[in-house]
Predict the 3D structure of the following.
Amino acid sequence: MAHPQPGLRAVPSDLPVYPIGRDERLDGHSFVKWWYHRWTSSRTFKLASWEAQGMARALFDMAQSESPVGTIPADNDELAVMLRTDARRIVDLRRQEFGPFRGWRPCLCDGETRLMHPVVLEQVRDAIERRDQRALSGEELAARKRLQRLRDGLKECGLVEAALRDPVLMRRMDEWLAENWKKRRGSEAYGAVILHARRQNWF
């Protein structure tokens, strides 16, 4: 008769699905907030041993590099390696009410059982949102600079000021260049887009 691997628990049919996919990663420049006031006011901080607190913080930090991000393995052997101990010690730690695994719950990640923590999930979601906002801000800044270069180039080609101030026209011309002009944008490119705009009655 086959026995389950040590450290693996039975998977309930109603196990929650972890909401972040494996393809989502936090790069080395991502900043993950540590809500120290929540930590120092928690029952874990107040009632756990210093050893358990140190392990708990280590698990919070290591989860940021796991896949999916924000989770840790459910397997005791893997957890033992992460916490530099042995699987029997992990079994004992997981039984402790105020041990390092307090708050960690099983979840499903693409059919695999892993552990998630609600506070760690909040941290990860916050970091992903701020990363995406920075990327969007960078894209917007690049777009503004590109449009300004377009206006400057068109002005040098003799396009009138009223046309240069038309945001719809500038966006159309920028999109046409993006689709049809793969070389470096220069006077030739700006002349071509002016000619195209006239043919299309954009003016």
